[in-house]
Amino acid sequence: MAIHSAALSFSCVSLNYQASGPSHSMFGPSVIRQCKVKAPVFSLPSPASFSRSRLQGKALESNNGPLEKEESLVVCFGEMLIDFVPTTSGLSLAEAPAFKKAPGGAPANVAVGIARLGGSSAFIGKVGEDEFGYMLADILKENNVNSEGMRFDPGARTALAFVTLRKDGEREFMFYRNPSADMLLQIAELDLDLIKKSKVFHYGSISLITEPCKSAHIAAAKAAKDAGVILSYDPNLRLPLWPSAESAREGILSIWDTADIIKISEEEIRFLTQGEDPYDDNVVRKLYHPNLKLLLVTEGPDGCRYYTKEFSGRVKGLTVDCIDTTGAGDAFVAGILSQIATDISLLQDENRLRDALRFANACGALTVTERGAIPALPTREAVLNALLESVA
């Protein structure tokens, strides 16, 4: 197959748009290149902790036994990939002399973030049966994330993304997905038992872009809904990965009304409402559907806004020295879901909800003080200490 070619041949299209969402927002426009590639074959030592399975869609063998019913379990569904970040800051991708690999993918970041905070989490998604795929599985294991729902595809590679912040403030991305393994997850490969045992099922919109993953996403969410699981949605708009802006808008909104909790950024509000003011509460309320329990609007360093049927308000963020905003939005989501999964009744108590959102804001703030997403995700102790220092 072409995807096994050792040559890196690709064609890129550059698009300028305002970065959407804290996960990759850098307070300026982004340049994103969607690349059609023939992915390289990497010859690296296979992690000793894994025995390979040559059966498509099978998980790695687990000695953990069946998952016990966990009232606070959060299952995160979607993509996990490798980010390549330049070793030298302030250069374009073409100018960078070398790159350092780092685990990425918003749903996976959230799963690790919850576990790092002492919560219970699992990841469901697909990676390539390659060295990077096994490395990502190892990272989930090291961070105490249940990976029984992870699948390995022998015919497609693990997705890659080259990411940098240029001197002019533009975030630049270059994706290798043609197709990548995360796009090929099938309904038959879903661990439905794991989904039904969860308290919260969290997902984004990237898994809605192509089949068969789109159908798998819809089936997984339906299974969760039918089992009484809380559905959490972070659209995490990546416009160049969609065929068009209109298809992105339609795709993101196609599952909007099924979610119980939605986290959205200011730029995503502007995109979905086709240019309306994201700071106008009346505009935000247009996105509030009748069955929604909580709508969150993240505002980067300024904190967040919250909307329920009964009340709404704003919670200020913590002031920190920002080094890298990658993963900040995912850390915020991990922070709030870790609280909701423990006690959903806080959604009816504004004071307790505000406390939970202060905690989530602190999670996001601490993440920007270090480079990378997963390496920077904070522990519960670090978050509590930061909150204490902020009121001292």
Structural classification = alpha/beta
How can the largest sheet be summarized?
A: 9 strands, mixed
Mean pLDDT: 84
Low-confidence blocks of residues: 1-55, 61-67
Approximate strand percentage: 15-25%
Question: For the CA atoms, what is the radius of gyration?
Answer: 20 Å
Terminal CA distance reads: 60 Å
Helix-strand topology string: EEEEEHEHEEEHEHEHEHHEEEHHH
Can you characterise this structure?
It is built from ten helices and 15 strands. Mean pLDDT is 84; it is low at 1-55 and 61-67. The N and C termini lie far apart (60 Å). The chain has 392 residues and is of the alpha/beta class. It has a nine-stranded mixed β-sheet, with helices on both faces. It has a six-stranded mixed β-sheet with strand order 1-2-9-8-4-5. It has helices at 106-116, 131-142, 192-196, 213-226, 245-254, 266-272, 281-286, 328-342, 350-367, 380-391; strands at 10-18, 29-37, 73-77, 81-86, 99-104, 120-128, 146-153, 160-165, 171-176, 200-203, 230-233, 261-265, 294-298, 304-307, 312-315. It is globular and about 50 Å long. The relative contact order is 0.15.
